[in-house]
Amino acid sequence: MNSSVIHEQVVDVQLFALARELTNVARVSLEVPVEGRPVTIADVQHALMTRFPRLASLGSKLLFAVGTQYADENTVVQPGEPVACFPPVSGG
Amino acid sequence: MPKLTEQPIESQQLLFAVQTTQAGAVILFLGTVREFTNQRQTLALDYEAFAPMAIAEMERIEAEAREKWLVAKIETIHRLGHLTLGEISVGVAVSAPHRDAAFAAGQYVIDELKRRVPIWKKENWSDGSQEWVHP
What we know:
Chain B: Keywords: Molybdenum cofactor biosynthesis, Transferase. Chain B: InterPro entries: MoaE_sf, Mopterin_biosynth_MoaE. The complex is a heterodimer. Chain A starts with 7 loop residues before the first strand and ends in a 6-residue tail after the last strand. The mean pLDDT of chain A is about 95. Chain A is of the alpha+beta class. Chain A has a single domain (about 10-85), classed as Beta-grasp domain (Ubiquitin-like (UB roll), Roll). Chain A has helices at about 15-25, 40-50; strands spanning about 10-15, 25-35, 65, 70, 85. A 5-stranded mixed β-sheet of chain A has the order 2-1-5-3-4. By secondary structure, chain B is of the alpha+beta class. Helix content of chain B is about 35%, strand content about 40%. Chain B has 3 helices and 9 strands; from the N terminus they run E-H-E-E-E-H-E-E-E-H-E-E. Chain B has helices at about 10-20, 50-70, 100-115, and strands at about 5, 25-30, 35, 40-50, 75-80, 80-85, 90-95, 120-125, 130. In chain B, helix 2 runs antiparallel to helix 3. The longest helix of chain B is centred in the middle third of the chain and has 18 residues, at about 50-70. The interface of A and B includes residues 69, 70, 87 and 91 of A.
């Protein structure tokens, strides 16, 4: 193993509402594999679904944010940036 | 200035906060806890938010409204926690020189809030069940 090569990026994910209840966690640190390109929300989503299969019931409805901005599957997650995962919003 | 609160929303304070001699029009929208949704009866609602993003998103919405219409002041506030029937869950107050802008901006702010701001509502139905509401 070459110690100069980074194999994974730890991404801190906060979960809300039904996403939190389905996983039983409000926050999780995910080890997302790094595959020679920046980590994206699609990578985080894949790691999250693998760790918490029950999230599949929300499927494509799950929303993501990086920091305090909505993100799509192509959004890059820089090391240390927090990610949020939640169902469609229902305030008001 | 957007706010989140766990205390009851005081509608009169919202009105005072936007009133100014620059405005000839003041509008107030209140969202309140409704008892019946179709045939189902609600006992209470629980609201939660991703607070820092909710505030940031409400600030963006207020800024967009200011770009689109000539408004004097905007106040947006959302209640969190456990709300019983009739309580105010959300308040939007807008003042503007003229009523058209006040109504249009107020409608924009509440519509965008419901579409984008990360706040979630859980129904406590009269049959004892609970359910997250997802559009």
